[in-house]
Each structure stands twice: as C-alpha cells, then as structure tokens.
Amino acid sequence: MPFQLTPAGWLTPARHCASPHWDERPRGEISLLVVHCISLPPGRFGGPYIDDLFMGRLDPAGDPYFAGIHQLRVSAHCLIRRDGELVQYVPFDKRAWHAGLSCFEGREQCNDFSVGIELEGTDTGTYTHAQYRVLAEVSRLLMATYPAITPGRITGHSDIAPGRKTDPGPGFDWARFRAML
Fold first, then answer.
1. Distance between alpha carbon 157 and the CA centroid of its chain, in Å?
2. Pair 26, 107: CB distance under 8 Å
3. How large is the average pLDDT for residues 39-66?
4. What's the pLDDT at 31?
5. Domain range annotation of the chain
6. Residue 180 belongs to what H/E stretch?
7. What are the φ and ψ backbone dihedral angles of 65, each rounded to 5 degrees?
8. In the CATH scheme, what architecture does the domain 4-180 have?
9. Start and end of every N-acetylmuramoyl-L-alanine amidase domain (predicted)?
C-alpha cells in the first residue's frame, strides 16, 4: 500500500510515535530533505532505544553509551528501520530537532526549512533494499507535496554539518537512491 499524507502531516501507513521534541517552523517553509542515520547503542539494530531517545525517555542505565545522550532533546520526522518499517515522530509541517548547527547553500538553521529522515544504520555500514525502497517512496511523496524539495535539495547530514557529522556515511548509495526517485 503506498504511503499517503494526512491533512495533519502524518504518513499512513506508518507507526506514529509523537515526539515532544518539535516546535513551529518560523516561516512554514519546507524546502530541504536531510538523510541521517542512527543506531542505539551504536552499531546495534532493533530495540526501543531510538523511539526512547526521540520521545525523551531514554534510560541512562540501559547502556553505558546512554549516560551521555539521555538528556538530549532531539527528534526526526521519520525513521526507516532495517526491515523497512516507517516510524513517524513529528508531522512534516512542524520543525523537528534533527539537524543541529547546520548550513545549506548559505542558509543556517536547516531545521527551520527541512524534513529529517533517519535510516537505522551506521555511518560506516550499508543500508538495506527495504530502506532504499521506503526512503524513495516517502521522498517522492514529499517532493509532490512540497515542490520546493527537488532532487538537488536532498542531502546528507554530513553535507549540512561538515566536520561535525558524518552520516549517512560512505555506505549510503546516493546514485542508487537518486535513480529510484
């Protein structure tokens, strides 16, 4: 079943997990798509920890790594798990807190005008066919809904925060992904 966008900015079918880590976009603009990756603990897939981080309920005792990140107030619009499951945390018309200190084409504060999609993975690994398929389908829907997002305005976190971020990493096949758009 193809994804559809509700008037409230939620994708269906998807698992919805409403994060408290968002706010209003200052100008309502949506003109950039940022591809990220995440795994918690680093290098481990599955489990509830990404949801817990984006929901502000990550238990610092759950893993030694969590002690340094449990207090972060971060989110993304969506996560695509290794098996292709799509989880949405923030409606697209709201500003998710995914990019941090960032700049695209001379404009800072990319959260103000971007959508952030996380892939479950590491910036040193590769991604699954299911992840590419779902990312391409969601990207096509976003480009149709928000025409300012074009293939040239889809970028990696490493591109908007060079030196600070490395995701989605060299294992993300940009040519493969762009061919699917």
1. 9
2. no
3. 97
4. 98
5. 4-180
6. helix 174-180
7. -65, -35
8. 3-Layer(aba) Sandwich (3.40)
9. 19-169
Q: Minimal CA–CA distance to 78: which of 131, 26, 123? A: 131
CA distance 152 to 22: 26
Say which residues have a Cβ less than 8 Å from residue 7's Cβ, sequence separation at least 6: none
pLDDT per residue over 9-18, tens digit each? Answer: 999 999 999 9
> Catalytic: which of 24, 29, 105, 118?
118
Strand partners, 15: 87
Nearest to 111 by CA among 158, 136, 76: 76
Contact 97, 22 (CB under 8 A): yes
Given a contact cutoff of 8 angstroms between Cβ atoms, the answer to whether 35 and 154 are in contact is: yes
Q: Residue 177, SS3?
A: helix
The neighbour count for residue 102, using CB atoms within 10 Å, is 23
Q: What is the pTM of this model?
A: 0.97
Check if 118 is active-site. Answer: yes
Using a 10 angstrom Cβ sphere, with 0-12 exposed, 13-18 middle and 19 or more buried, the burial of residue 28 is: exposed
Token pair of 156, please?
Answer: 């990696």
DSSP line for 125-144: S---HHHHHHHHHHHHHHHH
